[in-house]
Request: fold
Amino acid sequence: MTDNNTQKKFFGIMSFFIKLFQIILYVPLQIIFIPFAVIGLIVGIYKGMEKSKKLGVSFSAIKALQYRWFMHYFDTRPDTRSIAFIKNFPCESHFGLLSIFGALIISQRLFGFTTRFGKISRPGEENFISTAARRVLIFDRIMEKYVDEMEQIVIPGAGFDLIALKYTKEKNVKVFELDQVNTLHVKTETLQKAGIKHHWITYIPVDHSNESWVDKLLEAGFDKTKKTLFLWQSVSLYLDADIVKKTLREMADLCAEGSIIAQDFYSKEFSSGEYSKIVKRQMKVIEKRGEPWKFGIAMSKNSKAAVESFLIECGLKILEINQFGEKLDIEPFYCIVEAEKL
Ligand SMILES: C[S@@+](CC[C@H](N)C(=O)[O-])C[C@H]1O[C@@H](n2cnc3c(N)ncnc32)[C@H](O)[C@@H]1O
Reply:
């Protein structure tokens, strides 16, 4: 017992000095980067806020793409396609991101100074800050698990996610991506500029809130008799509850035997901004860009049961559920669910 305590104390002191040493190396590097970071910040704000507004592109989709950039450079998920995409993307600045985060990236790579960007939380120990990265990895895993057994993949609200390009190239599967017209237009133009092949994907412009995505999907060649994977990542938060329900019921109706619907949900506490001050701030920034958070499930009592009963209303049943934060001393605030038709 005493030996254990001494050992723990020793490792605690060691890791304190290692961290201190890393900070001492990082600070001068960051100082060198300051002038670049200032320019990068201005360019980044112009492209991310002004240019994207002019082009009518989804701001939340830009933010989701940014995470994929962080994950690539902070070595938690290699993604050269998203990097090539960002270099040609009118609404984000690769130079801006590099100049702002360059010192941290170099410090992590050269002397192991790891910040939250370079860490992935353990399952069930996620908080708001670590959610985006874990989410991306879980949806990757879902795609890997099902891609070879599916005949069609449908990604509503695909935004600038390149997951389909990563997993379906040269596979015998039909892929449909849906999103609002301006977002898809900028996506395909950027893919073209970046020289990223995407000819096997059918892009379908649609606004879920006032158009029938099902009619458009069927017109584009979707086959109701084929086994399909629906990936609905980070979209329901932005839709009214009745649209979320209607969309899920429609997905269930389109499911042939063996089809899977993978989706995520935030809690009501989260979508109303009550979860924390950081969440409220983030909510306000996104709201200003015309994408208010609208939908959440009341998860404060029994989150799994709440999600289960919501899905039953939509004609679906849970096959697997990942509840973020469930091992911490907090109520789960977000979950990713794999479901099938009831
Ligand atoms: C947070 S982004 C997620 C994008 C992508 N799924 C990802 O994970 O990177 C939300 C996406 O939902 C789309 N979206 C929101 N409301 C929509 C609507 N009414 N009709 C179609 N797409 C919508 C946005 O355009 C945006 O691309």
Observations:
- The beta strands are 152-156, 174-179, 201-205, 228-232, 260-266, 316-324, 334-341.
- The mean pLDDT is 94.
- Residues 58, 60-61, 64, 157-159, 161, 179-180, 183, 206-209, 233-235, 238-239 surround S-adenosylmethionine (CB under 6 Å).
